[in-house]
Amino acid sequence: MGENPFSLQSNSFHVKQAERRRADLLEQAHSLREDPPVVLCLHSLSDNEGDWSILPLLPYMSRSFGRNSSWIVFLQEETNVNTVPLLQVLAKFDKDKEWFLGKPLYDEESTIIHHYAFAENPSVFKYPDFAAAWALSIPLVVRLADKVRDEPLKSDFTIDLKHEIALYIWDNGNGPRLTAVPELCTEPEDSPRAHHCATTLRKDYSYSALESIFIRDKTVQVSKTWEKDALFLEYYSDHADPSIPTINLGVPNTERGHCGKTFAILQRFLSNAVPNTKWLVVVDDDTLISLPRLRVLLSCYDPSEPVCLGERYGYGLSQGGYSYITGGGGMVFSREAVVRILNSGCKCYSDDAPDDMVLGMCLNALGLPITHSPLFHQARPDDYAKDLLAHQVPISFHKHWNINPVAVFNKWLRNDMKTPNELDKNAKTEL
After folding, report:
1. pLDDT of 208 higher than 50
2. Is 70 exposed, middle or buried (0-12, 13-18, 19+ CB in 10 A)?
3. What are the start-end ranges of the E strands in 251-373?
4. Which residues are CB-neighbours of 173 under 8 A, at least 6 positions away?
5. Domains detected in the chain
6. Structural element, H or E, at residue 428
7. What is the pLDDT of residues 71-125, one digit of tens each?
8. Residues 383/358, Cβ–Cβ less than 8 Å
């Protein structure tokens, strides 16, 4: 079967989830009397912050497994694997040739999160849905590893890893495109439609209570969407307005970046001016967020740990850079995380510095991991592949450009804990 690296995170909840998945894979191999696969957790392979972006790890994979394996199969911790059909699927392909296998996604329109790639016809380029698992044949791994060693990775920012990996493998037509494998699925594990699937999805979230502070400037869209679901909410501006009300933090508004304001919010969170709560959630005034769904997600995490949660981006990961939570989708911090950030002495180099990236540098210096969730979104629903959103229960979207924010909230984020396809199959929204 080859190797199965998990795209894993070092938070204790995710470690436990991955260990269960690893144990299941090994038990299946034992019952089949197959040689057990090597199951790797990516976060544990080295101290390199960029390991989650996978490409920097290819030389290690080539060196360690290039001679005695046939495939590298990448899983996420929520990906169930049925070993027998997966082996049958892989056997259909010549292991001595270059193969890039997965469940294909594509963009119907060019999108900012993919840097408007293939603007004339974005649907021609396919990239893998990581939740379904994806696979590289060893000959392809070996060649890509040589390429990584010989040519420095050029991209400064890592934004949507699955699209960027597909672009790197395709290499302007010099490498293989993604081959669709119908048996790699994102159906729920108990779905009657999953009878042919080698992979399915598992979800283990449970409910619990949550106290949080939610921030940024008040808008009419906030009051008509998620405001009513907040247990404790404050709005911040550069002047106090009791009619809203807003709170003046003593930091002027800036055209670009909000670092000064965000660090003032961190300090206020730990002060006696607000209730002692477990979680701090920082959102922009053009962020749409489902607080009930966020409560479900946060029930997985221990707030006594330094949890920093959101949509993870990377800057300069191949050159010793850092990860950060992109601010537009929402940044979530446990109280312990805020304490460690402020006690470290980390601060803004200017009030208008990018707050999310400065916080990323702080967390990197402290050795605190960022916990990624694909349920936070830096862009609008139309900026993501429909097949990707179809198996998600989204927590947030960002930007009000060319949309009706209330309609988008009602379609995608209203609290009934169903997938978008089930929410309202007849909903029509002008986006």
Report:
1. no
2. middle
3. 279-282, 287-289, 308-310, 312-315, 322-325, 331-334, 371-372
4. none
5. 3-201 (3.90.550.50), 212-372 (3.90.550.50)
6. none
7. 999 999 899 999 999 999 999 999 999 999 999 999 999 999 999 999 999 999 9
8. no
What is the phi/psi pair of residue 260, to 5°?
-60, -45
Q: For residue 248, which of 261, 259, 258, 257 has the smallest C-alpha distance?
A: 261
**pLDDT 10s digits, 4-36:** 665 557 788 988 888 888 889 989 988 887 777
Measured from the Cβ of residue 377, the count of other Cβ atoms closer than 10 Å reads 27
CA distance 292 to 101: 36
Largest CA distance in the chain: 70
Q: Is the peptide bond before 245 cis (omega within 30 degrees of 0)?
A: yes
pLDDT tens for 128-175 read: 999 999 999 999 999 999 999 988 777 789 999 999 999 999 999 999
Record the tokens describing residue 280, joined without a space. 């701090």
Q: Which of 414, 413, 324, 358 is closest to 49 using CA atoms?
A: 324
Hey, what are 311's tokens?
């949509």
Tell me, what amino acid is at 400?
H
Candidates 78, 74, 163; CA nearest to 114 is: 163
Count the helices and strands in the chain (H runs, E runs).
Answer: 13, 23
Structural tokens at position 73: 């199969």
The whole-model pTM stands at 0.89
Instruction: Name the burial class of residue 164, with classes exposed (0-12), middle (13-18) and buried (19+) by CB atoms within 10 angstroms of its CB.
Output: buried
DSSP label at 74? E
- The residues, any chain, with a CB within 8 Å of residue 397's CB and separated by 6 or more, are 287, 288, 329, 377, 379, 380, 381, 408, 412, 413
List CB contacts of 10: < 8 A, sequence separation 6 or more: 43, 44, 369
